[in-house]
Each structure stands twice: as structure tokens, then as C-alpha cells.
Design brief:
Keywords: Acyltransferase, Transferase
Strand content: 25-35%
Protein name: GNAT family N-acetyltransferase
Organism: Ktedonosporobacter rubrisoli
Pfam families: Acetyltransf_1
CATH class of the largest domain: Alpha Beta
Largest sheet: 12 strands, mixed
Number of helices: 8
InterPro entries: Acyl_CoA_acyltransferase, GNAT_dom, YpeA/RimI_acetyltransf
Radius of gyration: 21 Å
CATH superfamily of the largest domain: Gcn5-related N-acetyltransferase (GNAT)
Distance between the termini: 19 Å
CATH architecture of the largest domain: 3-Layer(aba) Sandwich
Number of domains: 2
Helix content: 25-40%
């Protein structure tokens, strides 16, 4: 989509190697400018093949100066993350990228713009857009692993296979109170990624020979660190320490072969989960807000 004065905005379903390199360079520049973490999943961006245009790039003066990426969660909602070169801000570049994203996804129910708490430019843009905070997450990093002395040997924790997809979807649906169909669609995509692995916890006596699925989590090995996501325990089995047991099991699994950083995200209002992760040795390293903006052109 040509712009005035030699500016160009392009939309992509996949990114070329040169485009990805330019995006990484822009991210590093913006990161240094405001001393931000600016977490991007580079491995996912390399492997993505979307049915629709989810990446939007803005060029000026023969270089990339703006970028927006949309993540489709299969519910009609899109998470949106973006950045603009510090020397090209206040020129309407982000608004142009947002307009294009809205045009490409006219059927979207809403957009959720992800912004790091310490980004002054991001907060100013949110105010200009009239965005409202939907929720926020702490990004936590494991500093000193502290193991518990309690362990229930009736709980089995093991890697999940593709055949477990429906079981995991049920666990996540019961754990988070969301539509099981949406989780199933997400899982179908996640299982295709070689850098992501699900684990499942089941409860049962060996003598009975029946195991009840009670929890699950996802482990990502990407961008030089491990991330723990989608930690869920079904309501009937909460309060028994199984969430803690699953966390310890996955940390020991990682530490058996790697000393990479281990991190996770947690809703800032989820006091029980924050307490659990803190007791395991995690500490907050950044906070990200998720802001709702209109999906309609404005």
C-alpha cells in the first residue's frame, strides 16, 4: 500500500528472512531507547504461516520504521503488539498500521494492544487511542528454585501427545472457564510448533488402574529461554498442592538438561498464583498491560 513521500506500508501472511532481521533490529533499537524488555517470540514469527495478513510493516527512507503484529486467539479477538522507530514517532505511523490491521480484520470483535508498563511512548499512544485497560500480567523469572517437602505420589506428570489434545482442551476449559472449542483450535496450532510442548498431570491409584486428568501446562523453548504457560488445575482438584507439584516437576525437567532462564506470565490480580510462583523462587521482571481498543476504523 503506497504512501506519500516514498513511504510504504505492506501486509504479510509470512515474513521473509530479511524482513524478520529488520524487525529484530527495530526492536533492539526501541528496547534500548526506553530501556524496555520488548518481548517478541522470534521463533514463532519465523515459523508462522497465517491464512490472513497478521504482520504489517511501514517503511520510510529505505528502512523499516514501524511494525505491528496480530495474534489470533480464535475467538474473534486479536492481541496486537507494535513499535515505531524513535526518530519517526508522532508522524501517524502507528495509526496508519492500526488502520490497515482494522481493514484486514474487519470482522474482529476487538483488539487488545499489549504495552509494557514502562513505555512512556506506548502509554501516550494508548491515551490518544482512548484505550481501556482489560487486564495486566507480571512477567516473572525464576531466580532461586525452592522445592517443597510435600509430594503426592498419586499424581503422575508426563509429556502429552497429540492424542491428548481433547483432554488438554477440557482441562483448560474447566480451569479457565472458557469455550473448549477455542482451546482446541489453539492447541492444534501449538502442537505443530517443535519449540512448544504440553505436559499433563493425572491423579489415580495404581491398584485401581484409572487415572483422572487434573492439570496441564505448556513449556516453550524459544528465544534463548524457557517459558511456562497455560498452567491449569481443574476446580475439583485445587487446594491440594498439585499446581505446586506440577511447577516443581517442570522446573526439575528443565534443570536436568539446561541452565537457561525460566520465566512465566501471571495475571496481576491472581494472588494465589503469584504466591505460588513467588514461593517457588520467581520474581517479577516486567509488567505488561493489555488494553482494549476498538476493532472499528476511527
Amino acid at each position: 500500500m503506497p504512501q506519500n513521500d516514498g513511504h510504504t506500508l505492506v501486509a504479510r501472511t509470512t515474513l521473509s528472512a530479511s524482513e524478520l532481521t529488520a524487525i529484530q533490529q527495530l526492536a533492539e533499537l526501541c528496547k534500548r531507547y526506553e530501556n524496555l524488555r520488548m518481548r517478541w517470540s522470534w521463533d514463532e514469527l519465523r515459523q508462522q504461516v497465517n491464512a490472513a495478513n497478521n504482520d504489517f510493516l511501514y517503511y520510510a527512507d529505505d528502512k523499516l520504521v514501524g511494525y505491528v503484529h496480530l495474534y489470533d486467539d480464535f475467538s474473534g479477538e486479536y492481541e496486537l503488539a507494535g513499535m515505531v522507530h524513535p526518530d519517526y514517532r508522532r508522524r501517524g505511523i502507528f495509526q496508519a498500521l492500526l488502520r490497515k490491521a482494522r481493514e484486514e480484520h474487519a470482522d474482529a470483535k476487538r483488539f487488545i494492544l499489549v504495552c509494557e508498563e514502562g513505555s512512556g511512548s506506548g502509554q501516550a499512544m494508548l491515551a490518544q487511542l482512548g484505550a481501556t485497560l482489560s487486564f495486566a500480567e507480571h512477567e516473572m523469572q525464576l531466580e532461586h528454585f525452592r522445592e517443597s517437602s510435600t509430594f503426592d505420589d498419586r499424581l503422575t506428570f508426563k509429556p502429552a501427545e497429540f492424542d491428548d489434545l481433547d483432554v488438554i482442551a477440557t482441562i483448560l476449559s474447566r480451569s479457565f472457564g472458557q469455550d473448549e472449542t477455542i482451546f482446541r483450535k489453539r492447541l492444534e496450532q501449538r502442537f505443530k510448533n517443535p519449540h512448544q510442548r504440553y505436559y499433563i498431570a493425572t491423579f489415580g491409584e495404581e491398584s485401581v488402574g484409572c487415572e483422572e486428568p487434573v492439570g496441564c501446562l505448556r513449556l516453550d523453548d524459544a528465544d534463548g529461554e524457557f517459558g511456562i504457560y497455560s498452567v491449569g488445575v481443574v476446580p475439583d482438584y485445587r487446594g491440594r498442592g498439585y499446581g505446586r507439584q506440577m511447577m516443581e516437576e517442570i522446573i526439575r525437567t528443565v534443570r536436568a538438561s539446561s541452565q537457561k532462564t525460566i520465566m512465566l506470565d501471571v495475571d496481576t490480580t491472581n494472588t494465589p498464583a503469584i504466591s505460588l510462583y513467588t514461593s517457588c523462587g520467581f520474581r517479577t521482571r516486567a509488567t505488561h498491560g493489555y488494553y482494549e481498543i476498538s476493532a472499528q476504523k476511527g
